[in-house]
Design brief:
4 strands; mainly alpha; Heme Oxygenase, Chain A; UDP-N-acetylmuramoyl-L-alanine:D-glutamate ligase; 2 domains
């Protein structure tokens, strides 16, 4: 049915057409969706002396009167009668808190309550609501549910609308449709190129600590301190991946986490061999006390794993896995890196080795796979986890640079 009176109050249908609608269309109408001025107009055209409602009780009575004109159901829209939180007439505009749409089928009154919106973008709300109800009914959804879902659709359209030009703008019909801000298979590229990630990632991967490693300029005692703390961190890194297995929902994901734990075990053996070349025994390392930096970082990851889901944990782990691979690859191929006589070159070689490169590839593929199944809102949550874990990685380098 054509809109008779717009949201702004303009009568769009000539008076003689109102009579035609009332006499010839309403008896065949499944759901009539008038706003309050339209309901009053229809009743007055039929000879009923009616006033505009001032409260919810009046509005329900108005809906029942309009129902007598012939429609099977009436949904009286409450946008012209905002109420306060107690469902009473507000004493001021600031007191308006809710709007209530009233559905009546001749026997039962159903109320659909929504938060009152002060958005100016309400153009097309009536047409959108009627169309949404019709679409739901065509999908064989029961009438009350069809109306409620349509009301929620329009409510979200108003609340997520964008100001366009001047005057009353349209509602946002696309609030439940979204596209991810990256092409499939390029989620990691998207993250690392984000303006809020780039400076943190650069500070991590180009830190003074690793730059000094590449030219053999880091004091040995500082590096030994780092090696001890890195081993203690790897213990918790393995625990985190074991937790990821528990958080997994498929055998393949459990197996992947188990493979990573086994890789960490292999890495720790290499780590111990490397530590031995600096005079550090396994007993020396395992009897050492964790630094506050190591504790903060490793427990952050475990906390994300405990409080979040599997994917959140993967993003807390990702900076370490991806970062070490990226750092080692860059240093290994950098012309300014010193190979001959560099006590730390073996450290770089460990992270460009085939087994570690394979682990990075597997981890990256896993993140890319699961990134296709998340919402834009989840993307932001995961990026913030990634940033925090990267900041804690920077703290780890700072610790190594200080040697304490």
């Amino acid at each position: 049915m054509k809109v008779m009176i717009s949201t702004s109050g303009s009568q769009l249908l000539p008076q003689n057409a109102v009579k035609a609608v009332r006499e010839h269309l309403l008896p065949y109408t499944t759901v009539l969706t008038p706003n309050i001025p339209e309901a009053v107009l229809l009743l007055r055209d039929s000879g009923v002396d009616v006033k505009e409602p001032e409260n919810l009780h009046d509005a329900i009575a108005l809906a029942k009167q309009v129902h007598k004109l012939g429609p099977r159901h009436i949904l009286l829209k409450g946008g012209h009668l905002p109420l306060n939180a107690q469902r009473e007439k507000p004493t001021s505009d600031a007191d308006a808190a809710i709007v209530i749409d009233i559905l009546y089928d001749g026997q039962t009154v159903s109320l659909v309550e929504a938060t009152f919106s002060r958005s100016k973008n309400t153009h097309g709300t009536g047409c959108s609501l009627a169309s949404a109800i019709a679409a739901n009914l065509a999908g064989e959804i029961e009438i009350t549910r069809a109306v409620r879902e349509a009301c929620r659709y329009v409510e979200a359209g108003i609340n997520t609308s964008t100001d366009l030009g001047k005057g009353n703008g349209p509602i946002n019909h696309f609030h439940s449709l979204y596209s991810l801000p990256y092409a499939p298979g390029h989620f990691i590229d998207y993250i690392l190129e984000r303006p809020d990630v780039q400076p943190v990632w650069q500070a991590f991967t180009e830190h003074e600590f690793v730059q000094k490693l590449s030219i053999g300029a880091l004091p040995v005692e500082n590096f030994k301190w780092y090696l001890v703390q890195d081993y203690l961190y790897l213990v918790n890194f393995a625990r985190s991946n074991a937790l990821a297995a528990y958080k997994s929902h498929t055998v393949d994901e459990i197996a992947m986490s188990a493979q990573i734990v086994l890789h960490i075990q292999h890495e720790m053996k290499l780590h111990l061999d490397y530590c031995a070349s600096f005079g550090l025994s396994k007993e020396d390392i395992e009897s050492s006390k964790e630094s506050l930096t190591c504790t903060a970082y490793s427990r952050y990851i475990l906390d994300i794993g405990q409080s979040g889901d599997w994917l959140a944990l993967q993003f807390a782990l990702a900076p370490c896995l991806l970062g070490y691979g990226a750092i080692a690859q860059r240093l290994f191929h950098a012309e300014e890196s010193v190979r001959e006589g560099n006590n730390y070159w073996k450290w770089i070689e460990n992270y460009v080795a085939d087994d570690y490169s394979a682990a990075v590839k597997l981890g990256s593929a896993t993140l890319e796979k699961h990134s296709r199944q998340i919402s834009p809102f989840r993307v932001e949550e995961l990026v913030q986890i990634f940033i925090r874990a990267t900041e804690l990685e920077i703290g780890f380098w700072d610790m190594g640079l200080r040697g304490e």
